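Hi everyone, sorry if this is the wrong subforum. Our group has a chain we'd like a structural model of before ordering constructs, and none of us has done structure prediction before. Sequence below.
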Amino acid sequence: MPNPVAIVTGAGSGLGRVIATALLADGWAVALAGRRAGPLAETAGGHPATALPVPTDVADPDSVAALFRAVVERWGRLDLLVNNAGGFGPAGTPDEIDVDAWRATVDTNLTGSFLCAREAFAVMRAQRPGGGRIINNGSISAHAPRPGSIAYTATKHAITGLTRSLSLDGRPFGIACGQLDIGNAATDMTAGIATGARQADGSVRPEPTFDPAHVADAVRYMAGLPLDANVQFLTVTATAMPFIGRG
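Answer:
Right subforum, don't worry. Here is the predicted structure as tokens:
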């Protein structure tokens, strides 16, 4: 059988690199999307036949469309989209947030996920056999905010609405959509959390983190299900992080 085909956004570093590397190890053909060609090539490593680095700006509709065209031209179909690209955005109280920084966060975290899901939906709906799966990276900020994170938190709450709508609209076409909410995976993006993170009471305390390989394992599980089964929402956190409870 041919390799199943995936696209992972934000694949040049962090969780995207870990997820893409795990899928490649499992025999997937993986298109690696991200802004910078160099890090994408590093993620591709020794997989010339099954890794396709495609420099992509997920906030640009034309760039996203070119990514999906490249995948269909190379492999003829798409079985999985992992909407992982995103960033924390500006920090501060709402009155301190620059409007352009807010819009840039929405463009990447939310509109970028929509644009990729839109293209994936079109491919998955038309291909034969039809269907596929979309996994959105939500974050535990889709459940509860950190202080000073209004732009990031708003986009991650919106990702939950995107996930639910994709799940509903995808039913007639065999397109499943689930959301993975992650808390404190140890990546460059979250490096500061281990040394000191602002808490709800205003104090700054270090928080535990966990190996991002466990995030890749969660994606593997979600992606490995048949399309008549779906993990709708899955939360993976460091066990002792101050998320559940009163903080």
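For your construct planning: The mean pLDDT is 95. The first helix runs from residue 14 to 25.
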